[in-house]
Amino acid sequence: MIELKSAAEIDRMAVAGRFVGELLGELRDIAAVGVNLMDLEHHARRRIKQRGAESCYWDYAPSFGRGPFRNVLCLSVNDAVLHGLPRDYVLRDGDLLSIDMAVGIDGWAADSALSVVVGTADPADLTLIEATEVALEAAIAAAQPGGRLGDISAAISEVASAYGYGVNAEFGGHGIGRTMHEAPHVANKGRAGRGLKLDPGLTIAIEPWLCRTTDKIVFDDDGWTIRSADGSRTAHSEHTVAITASGPQVLTHAQNSQTGMDHEERVIKRQ
């Protein structure tokens, strides 16, 4: 069942979204050569507790994974792209780190992710991250009221193709609101003009993720961490977005991982 949110409910989601974006910006700034992934995890735990928020990841137990997730962040390094478990790992020069998090505040959730290179960046990694960010912006711009879910999916896959990357359709975005994962599924590959009509009040997490030289994935033995099948680098970008009568509204403020510029909470209108 898909629940359309009122303007007041979207405003309440935006409160959670602002906190998610702020905390992601902090984590991006903390991530550096020599920093342990568990330092990022514990910083996020402290901030979530201080805010009186709740992690949507803690005790999350989907059909995949082994046992409930007992962390507040997904930290995926290099060839890991989704659901990376925080662990005792010290970031090295040139590592590509994806940070994904979702929290709830007063019963409303928001979800966002970004990728960043710590230390000396390989230009190919920066291009990969850029592709996910451009795909995300294109998908947001395509999320127009009266359009179709396939418009969002097609925008992502078109950008990926233009950059020369394949798209894996097994994991993608999702509805979000009272819980982290709601209907509908938002695929990263699709056909424009097809699928669910985008009505005002629909709230979704849009999350393009890409592997540099494959569209195939494998799971670690932990049942959670998803990696590129060929060991190539990966990247992931995500925002929580509300469809409004005026256009898509981004609810999660997150710093751009390459420019450091803020994504304003905004309504994007098709030009």
Question: Would you kindly provide a written description of the structure presented here, covering whatever features stand out?
Answer:
Helix content is 27%, strand content 23%. The protein has 271 residues and is of the alpha+beta class. The chain has a single domain, classed as Alpha-Beta Complex (Creatine Amidinohydrolase), CATH 3.90.230.10. Strands 7-6-8-13-14 form a 5-stranded antiparallel beta sheet, with helices on both faces. Strands 1, 2, 4 and 5 form a 4-stranded antiparallel beta sheet that branches. A 3-stranded antiparallel beta sheet has the order 3-11-10, with no helix packed on it. The radius of gyration is 17 Å and the shape is globular.
The coarse silhouette is globular
Structural class by SSE content: alpha+beta
- Nearest-integer average pLDDT: 93
Q: Could you give a short account of the major beta sheet? A: 5 strands, antiparallel
Q: What's the CATH class label?
A: Alpha Beta
CATH fold description: Creatine Amidinohydrolase
Query: Can you say what the CATH homologous superfamily is?
Result: Creatinase/methionine aminopeptidase superfamily
**Helix-strand topology string:** HHEEEEEHHEEEEEEEEE
Q: What strand line-up does the widest sheet have?
A: 7-6-8-13-14
What is the helix tally? Answer: 4
pLDDT below 50 for ≥5 consecutive residues: which ranges?
255-271
Q: Give the beta-strand count.
A: 14
C-alpha end-to-end distance: 32 Å
The figure for the number of domains is 1
Give the proportion of residues in helices.
25-40%
